[in-house]
Design a protein that fits this description.
Blueprint (H helix, E strand, L loop, with lengths): L1 H91 L1
């Protein structure tokens, strides 16, 4: 019985050593993965920020050169229609 207990203790000790070694290996692998992700993600984030900045600039340009003049033209046309409606209603009476 004592021999079985001694063998079990030795097996558990070897298993603990093996688990410790594998855990250390896993930590080193995790460090490598973190380093790789930092090196790969940072350029992607920089590219995303650059793209967002370009989109902001393009949006401002389109708004200033296309949308604002179109809104002014639509307002003028609407005002002219209203003036014409008011003038034609008064004549009809």
């Amino acid at each position: 019985m004592a021999t079985a207990r001694d063998v079990a203790i030795i097996v558990l000790a070897l298993e603990s050593i093996l688990v410790g070694i594998l855990l250390i290996f896993l930590i080193f692998q995790l460090q490598g993965l973190i380093r790789l992700l930092r090196e790969e993600i940072q350029p992607i984030l920089d590219s995303i920020n650059e793209t967002a900045s370009t989109v902001r600039g393009t949006t401002a340009f389109v708004s200033d050169t296309v949308v604002s003049p179109m809104m002014r033209i639509a307002g003028i046309i609407s005002a002219l229609r209203r003036i014409i409606d008011v003038l034609t209603r008064r004549r009809a009476r």
